[in-house]
Backbone:
């Protein structure tokens, strides 16, 4: 089963159009939605959650049609949206009570164990938390009602490396055959580690959806002269960056003639090069 | 619904404590001084409470947070009108106290004020759902001005010696009070339906 | 069981897993019928993608190094050591054939090739 299926999802604004998007998140996997600020990541996530009503297309979550299956289907989804925060005047204990009253599957024991594990005080107000603590509390709240799908928006941005690792570890533990995670970030390196799939959203369009490791296997960074580049099959060259001393090109490794050195490319370089080209 | 009420309770207790204090404070000095005008403030504040709650929710975007939970849009709106009825019900003890201390006439006047307050609320809530907290706050100021001038005129009619026999005034106010409150409640019902339509289409 | 995954080597991660498990099997580090870690666990421990791990296991299974019992997991296949050696030899032979085919095109003599090979050996 697929955790999320988007088919032809479209949403138009005066100065921006999202889609049409086709995207699938299979159960048991983690998909990272990458893109610059304003690329449409939040709009996509909000459309999945019915906070925004798409103009066209269909959204299926955990095999059920959205928004018809809401609000009861939301029992199965844990969400952390960057811009939608827990009210600042609540402390962790009260957040727990609030969640317990909303989710029929709320598991106070799990919640308490997350609070302990993540070192979150239960009587300190949310607004007095550091950014890292806020994110950890939001995550604890999202993970304590036995959700099968986790949707996270910019969950790791602006966090120190220790906290980020802590959060990534929790996500690793969460994701097994019965669970799936969709997470968005404008920081590619955050997603490089954890994701099985990468979807690259640029100016409202999906430029790329690919299994992460295959992507890194398939493409490489060729450093050569402009003349060398001109001699190559142009369809094997996805993007290039020309500088004073030569060219850096994103190429399909398999289609390069022998003798040219193709370096491994990391996800961030790949995305930046692609974004420039589009 | 339960989670919404709980959240409202937290909001009320943590953010609007001063507001609660003033409701009780005005009621107390008013009853002590046997003057119903401060009681009017209490009733007005009670009527506006659901709006303040909505405003706080809206500015911290808690509304949208709730929609991430298994809470439907209809429930969010319904709960807001339930709090409206609940706070209107909170005015009843004030009525009772006023009746005991100041007599039936005070109760009639307060009922009129409650009706006017609910009327303002019925107009404000759909506006707040449509335009958000900030814009509707401006509208609220206009409404409040209207409210005060209306209640001013009513009390003016009562206190001024305008030649009408006393019984006639009482009679007139009595009739108004009898119809105003049900009318305000009907309007609140209409307002609920309008808010629901607006909120179903809203995007966050 | 030791597995070292390098992100900078340029060798695809699934290949790294495959070749290291093969080596472990050939060197006797993994005995026949010994259970391999589940795909999910291996991915979690190595902090790599589940899909990649799955691909590595599928590759190993296709080549006959491991077998999978549905619901139980993957195990090291019982193999004849002679057969395994035979297989490796065949692979070396075919790679050499490839060299022999390519060398004349570049004007490389047998001596040049031998020299290249000994340099490679030194580097390693």
Residues:
């Amino acid at each position: 089963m697929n955790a999320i299926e988007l088919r032809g999802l479209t949403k138009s604004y005066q100065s921006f159009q999202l889609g049409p998007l086709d995207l699938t998140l299979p159960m048991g996997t983690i998909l990272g939605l990458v893109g610059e600020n304003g690329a449409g990541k939040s709009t996509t996530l909000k459309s999945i959650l019915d906070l925004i009503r798409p103009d066209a297309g269909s959204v299926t979550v955990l095999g059920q049609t959205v928004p018809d299956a809401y609000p009861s289907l939301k029992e199965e989804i844990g969400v952390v949206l960057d811009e939608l925060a827990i009210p600042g005047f609540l402390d962790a204990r009260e957040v727990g009570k609030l969640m317990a009253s909303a989710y029929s599957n709320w598991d106070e024991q799990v919640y308490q164990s997350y609070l302990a594990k993540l070192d979150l005080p239960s009587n300190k107000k949310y607004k007095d938390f550091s950014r890292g603590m806020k994110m950890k509390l939001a995550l604890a709240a999202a993970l304590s009602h036995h959700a099968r799908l986790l949707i996270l928006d910019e969950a790791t941005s602006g966090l120190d490396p220790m906290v980020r690792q802590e959060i990534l570890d929790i996500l690793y533990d969460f994701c097994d055959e019965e669970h799936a995670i969709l997470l968005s970030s404008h920081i590619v390196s955050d997603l490089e580690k954890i994701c099985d799939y990468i979807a690259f959203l640029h100016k409202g369009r999906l430029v790329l959806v690919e299994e992460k490791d295959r992507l890194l296997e398939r493409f490489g960074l060729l450093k050569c002269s402009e003349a060398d580049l001109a001699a190559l099959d142009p369809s094997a060259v996805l993007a290039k960056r020309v500088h004073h001393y030569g060219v850096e090109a994103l190429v399909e490794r398999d289609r390069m003639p022998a003798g040219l050195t193709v370096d491994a490319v990391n996800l961030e370089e790949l995305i930046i090069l692609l974004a420039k080209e589009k | 619904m339960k989670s919404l009420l709980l959240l409202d309770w937290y909001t009320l207790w943590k953010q609007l404590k001063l507001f609660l204090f003033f409701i009780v404070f005005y009621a107390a000095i008013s009853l002590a001084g046997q003057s119903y005008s401060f009681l009017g403030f209490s009733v007005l504040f009670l009527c506006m409470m659901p709006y303040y709650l909505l405003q706080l929710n809206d500015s911290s975007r808690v509304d949208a947070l709730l929609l991430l939970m298994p809470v439907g849009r209809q429930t969010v709106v319904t709960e807001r009108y339930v709090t409206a009825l609940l706070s209107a019900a909170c005015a009843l003890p004030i009525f009772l106290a006023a009746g005991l201390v100041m007599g039936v006439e005070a109760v009639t006047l307060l009922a009129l004020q409650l009706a006017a307050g609910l009327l303002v609320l019925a107009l404000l809530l759909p506006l707040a759902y449509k335009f958000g907290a900030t814009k509707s706050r401006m509208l609220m100021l206009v409404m409040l001005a209207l409210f005060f001038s209306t209640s001013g005129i009513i009390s003016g009619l009562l206190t001024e010696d305008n030649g009408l026999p006393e019984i006639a005034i009482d009679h007139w106010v009595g009739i108004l009070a009898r119809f105003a409150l049900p009318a305000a409640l009907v309007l609140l019902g209409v307002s609920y339906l309008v808010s629901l339509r607006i909120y179903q289409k809203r995007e966050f | 069981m030791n597995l070292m995954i390098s992100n900078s080597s340029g060798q695809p991660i699934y290949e790294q897993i495959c070749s290291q498990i093969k080596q472990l099997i050939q060197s006797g580090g993994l005995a026949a019928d010994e259970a391999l870690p589940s795909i999910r666990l291996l991915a979690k421990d190595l902090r790599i993608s589940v899909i990649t791990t799955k691909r590595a296991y599928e590759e190993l299974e296709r080549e006959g190094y491991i077998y999978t019992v549905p619901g139980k997991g993957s195990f090291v296949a019982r193999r004849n050591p002679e057969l395994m050696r035979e297989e490796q030899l065949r692979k070396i032979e075919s790679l050499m054939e490839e060299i022999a085919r390519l060398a004349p095109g570049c004007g490389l003599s047998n001596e040049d090739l031998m020299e290249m090979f000994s340099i490679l050996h030194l580097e390693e």
Notes: Chain C has two domains: 13-76, 81-123. Strands of chain C lie at 66-69, 73-76.
